[in-house]
Amino acid sequence: MRFASPIFCAPVDDGGGLAQFVTPRRSLRHVALAFAFVLTMPALGAPAGGTATELAASNSAGEVIFRRGLLGSGEPIVALRSGAANAEGATAACVNCHQRSGLGGPEGRTTVPPITGRYLTRPLPKDGDDGDLPFVEGMRGNRSPYSDELLARAIREGVDPDGQRFSYLMPQYALGDQDMAALTGYLKHLDQQRVPGVTDSTLHFATIITPDADPVKRAGVLDVMKHFFADRNVRQMVPVPAMRTSAKTAYSRAMFMVHRRWELHVWELTGPASGWQQQLERHLEREPVFAVLSGLGGGNWAPVHAFCEHAGVPCLFPNLELPVVNESDFYSIYFSRGVLLEAGLVAKALRETTAGAVPQSVTQIYRAGDVGEAAAAELAALLKDSGIKVSSQVLTGSAGAGVANAVHRAGSAERLVLWLRPKDLAALGVAPAANRVYLSGLLGSLERAPVPAAWRERTRIAYLFDLPDRRRVRVDFAIGWFMARHIPLVAEQSQVDTYLALGLASEVLKHMGDAFVRDYFVERAVLQVEHRIVTGYYPRLALATGQRFASKGGFLVKWATPTGNFVAPDGNWTIP
Questions:
Q1: Distance in angstroms (rounded) separating the CA atoms of residues 129 and 242
Q2: Quick one: DSSP state of residue 143?
């Protein structure tokens, strides 16, 4: 555990400084110290009186200042720093440093402290015991609490409650009384005493299975989840007794987390997608959960994504071929963009000169209603201004039907792109006229795709994972865990991804202690993902502010031998 030093915003990892803007990974956070100064305060009074409508309006105005850097007048907030360029508007918004939760976190060599009401107003403990205040990195143990007046002075003048001037990293803000009241009211609003899905003894989680999910993958994913939960509950540590120490240097009880058991709720959706939102709302009402972990979808995850955003429930790393791409959303995090990322890899390859000339024509083949339809639309959009003519052959009917005819109708197209599953690939028939074929690895079963022998030499597979020989050690870690628990390996990639998602969630919760805030859980997951050593199928996972896809690239691979499943890269790992 680290404790804040008496120096505010010092550019070292002492927990006392606010935002750090020179971190390579978080460079997108701007130098938005948006009141990094506040980060060490505790002592705002209770929320001002007023009607529910007035309080809601105040919170809304404070939220706009905190998240968007806009004053009540609509003008941008301005962050003033002596000897440095000013920041304003979104780049000066508090959220850039203190996060959406207001609980801050590590930022390079600096730890950004929490600035929610409970931490700002916390009196100095007299007996070394902070009671029920959860430990958060950066919380100050040796500074006087803030009152509303002292907080306003800190924001405007850069002076802490004890009269000490902040580091140069802490900007000053000329907020009027109305904007100041709105902002401090919003900080108090961020405190959550009771979080759904969290009790004194249990953490409740859900996993969501859509009715169009692959039944084989469903069995494999749920098997891994149930064993992980059972294993975690059996092996959890015994609670650590509270420690009594100096009020100036430690947080006793707050430093130790209560070891709660995990309970899994499986939310299986039924019927058409139009009814899923209502089903999910009923599930959440009956079984409040802290977060949704892993899960499995088929061709449509959009209603689930929308539910997570609307309900404010973290939804981490579901097993999907077609995730929802909206990086302005907050609560959903995915491993990759799935078939849309494959489309990006293929588009990049097609736009680049191949064998001396960019192709003039491309034909895509996909089955109506499958996720390949969305991938084909993405590829067509990416090639729209490239000068390459894109056409499509759409399959209907049962798997395998019409595939050979579609290939024949592709005629003299120079490139052929197949968004097809194994049964369709097995029915391809004679080799096409196209001198290059691109294949969806996700849909076609990666290197095990049953492509006829005559097609193999000219085919390149869009491959979103590390190569088999390079990932083997990381994947074997999970597979060894499965074997020890007699879990059948029926869908290796989905099962390994599920194990990876659960392991990440477990690590994040350890770092959170007992600070159970849903937004904080998402923020810590974004921070923690790149520190994973065991990354399963992926060579590297990382997220920065605003990003929601942890793996951003892939290979084009080819079969290395006329028969068998050995593949080799046809170029480097590429981020399209």
A1: 9
A2: S
Q: Distance between CA atoms of 54 and 397, rounded to whole angstroms? A: 59
- Indicate the SS3 state at residue 141: coil
Residue 525, Cβ density class (10 Å: 0-12 exposed, 13-18 middle, ≥19 buried): buried
Q: Please say whether the structural domain 202-335+471-517 has been given the CATH code 1.10.8.100.
A: no
Fold (topology level) of 340-463+556-569: Rossmann fold (3.40.50)
Q: How far are the Cα atoms of 204, 257, 331, 546 from residue 514, in angstroms, in the given order?
A: 14, 5, 20, 25
**Ramachandran angles phi, psi of 300, nearest 5°:** -140, 110
Taking only the tens place, the pLDDT of each residue in 133-148 is 788 887 876 778 888 8
What does the DSSP 8-state code read for residue 430? S
Q: Quick one: which of 536, 574, 535, 576 has its CA closest to 555?
A: 574
Comparing CA positions, the residue from 97, 100, 141 lying closest to residue 119 is: 141
User: What are the DSSP E strand ranges found in 181-290?
Assistant: 202-209, 261-268
With left for phi above 0 and alpha for psi between -120 and 50, is residue 76 left, alpha or beta?
beta
Note whether 202-335+471-517 and 340-463+556-569 share their fold.
Answer: yes
Query: Contact, 337 vs 442, CB < 8 A?
Result: no
Task: Provide CB contacts within 8 A for 410, sequence distance 6+.
Answer: 363, 365, 393, 416, 432, 433, 434
The neighbour count for residue 310, using CB atoms within 10 Å, is 12
Residue 321's contacts (CB-CB under 8 Å, 6 or more residues apart) are 299, 338, 339, 371, 442, 443
Write the CA distances from 400 to 392, 395, 396, 448, integer angstroms.
17, 9, 10, 17
Count the alpha carbons within 13 Å of 197 in the hemisphere toward its beta carbon.
23
In which band, very low, low, confident or very high, does the pLDDT at 353 lie, cut at 50, 70 and 90?
low
User: What three-state secondary structure class fits 510?
Assistant: helix
pLDDT tens digit sequence for 193-249: 789 999 999 999 999 999 999 999 999 999 999 999 999 998 765 444 444 444 444
Residue ranges covered by each domain of the chain? 27-189, 202-335+471-517, 340-463+556-569
Which of 226, 191, 7 lies closest to 103, judged by CA?
A: 191
DSSP 318: -
Give the tokens for residue 349.
């390859």
Q: Tokens for 289? A: 């959960």
pLDDT tens for 256-310 read 467 899 999 999 999 999 999 999 999 999 999 999 999 999 999 999 999 999 9
| Residue 129: closest CA among 256, 259, 237 | 256
